[in-house]
Amino acid sequence: MANDTSSSDNQLVLSPFFEKLNNLQISRRALPTLPEEGTIAQARKSLLKFLEAEGHDGWDEHLTSDIAPALNAGSLSPNYYGFVTGGCTIPALFGDMLASVYDQNVQVHLPNQTIATDVEACALNMLLDLFRFDRDVWGQSSTFTTGATASNVLGLAMGREWVLRRKAEERGSHLLSVAEHGIHEVMADIGLRKFQIVSTWPHSSIAKAASIIGMGRANLISVQGTLEPGGFTMRIDFNRLEAEAQVDNVATILVISAGEVNTGRFATNGLEDMKRLRAICDRYGIWIHVDGAFGLFGRLLSDEAEFGEIVRGCQGLELADSITGDGHKLLNVPYDCGFYFCRHKGIPEEVFRNGNAVYLTSAASEDTRPSPLNIGIENSRRFRALPVYATLLAYGRGGYLDMLQRQIRLARKVVADLWDSEVYHVLSDATSKTEALERTFMVVLFSARDDNLNADLVRRINATRKIYVSGTSWEGRSAARIAIANWNVDVDKDHKIIQSVLNEVAER
């Protein structure tokens, strides 16, 4: 292929490459979670250091023989428990390959040229069905993003627009839009001195989003309450929230964590909590944004006898103004994929519409949906909807419920082992084993009792290459975190693997 770029030699002949890919798909359970250090070193040496004048015919062999073996099995292995990393279902993988082959830019509605935006609308509606949200309320202002981080930027940007517009209307200002006039001019005109974000244990991407849209990381304020006996979460302190809402000349957005990344905890506990939050926020003109990167999937559950704590943590989220989720976590579609739901029609277009770029307008049709480029950050957008559509089509609600139940049950088996262990310690506020199990979602936080072992615990576990865990900290001490998110979980088989590794590390 070297220098020849003629069309005759560049026909779309994919079968040889699919065969190479298939050869890489050895038994997922035979894959080590991490490559050997020597393999990484060898692959690094093989990298082309400079662009050469002539191309290489063996580029595909280089990718499969040198590069691929030096990649971790984050999405391939069901035993990779780091970073809340989902896998990739077979239908999602097939959808993603088609998305790459056809390479659609899903930006405007072109109904007579491509079905891409129709597929995106269907996929978003299927997600709303999965999470039991009303299509009529959420369907018109929802979109796909690169992930929950980008979705959180959308949520805070739209919240900023809505909150300041309401304040401006109350104070009789003619400057109603931050998107149009800028945050400094609007806030000065209506006499506001600060815009704050209140939350409990927000993900770091909330602080990043605050810095991007001009609110500032320093204006992220805690309204974290004390942990109540028998509760599942470090919940919102309603009195602290109301006190912050009453501060003069300050605008506020409330961010609710539905599944805090370090512990899996939820910030609310039942529908009454959300109703009370909604009433406070309506009274003071506060936008409610839910970061549900993976916790949102708890809305699939209904069995309160087994999953009551999680069910209650997800109740009432439909009362929020905006919600984010990650597709590349528990939905198990390829990176990068997030989604964003907003109940306020018109606000997304006010913030993200493209000026007067006539060439980016939709083709004439009866479709009244806003074009994707006018309700999100990107003008150029990958066809992320196709893998989502494919996997939801293949598995339905029942298939995803089964995946989630297996993930939770495996996590609870691990917690049960650790609770009884003389070597390890479950990091939980629970006062009994039963309570600890009830509070476990799909994240397990633990440490070694011995300080010397604990200081090296994560490295020793990951060095086995049989499972992978993330390092974190808890109350100033090092800790390990197991986040079970892969669709291919086998509760009994994976439980034995985890047991074996933890026993091996303890014996050493």
TrEMBL record:
The keyword Transcription does not apply. The modification N6-(pyridoxal phosphate)lysine is found at residue 329. Keywords: Lyase, Pyridoxal phosphate. It holds the Pfam family Pyridoxal_deC. One of its GO terms (cellular component) is cytoplasm. It comes from the Eukaryota. GO terms for molecular function: carboxy-lyase activity; pyridoxal phosphate binding. One of its GO terms (biological process) is carboxylic acid metabolic process. Its cofactor is pyridoxal 5'-phosphate. Belongs to the group II decarboxylase family. This is L-2,4-diaminobutyrate decarboxylase. It comes from Endocarpon pusillum.
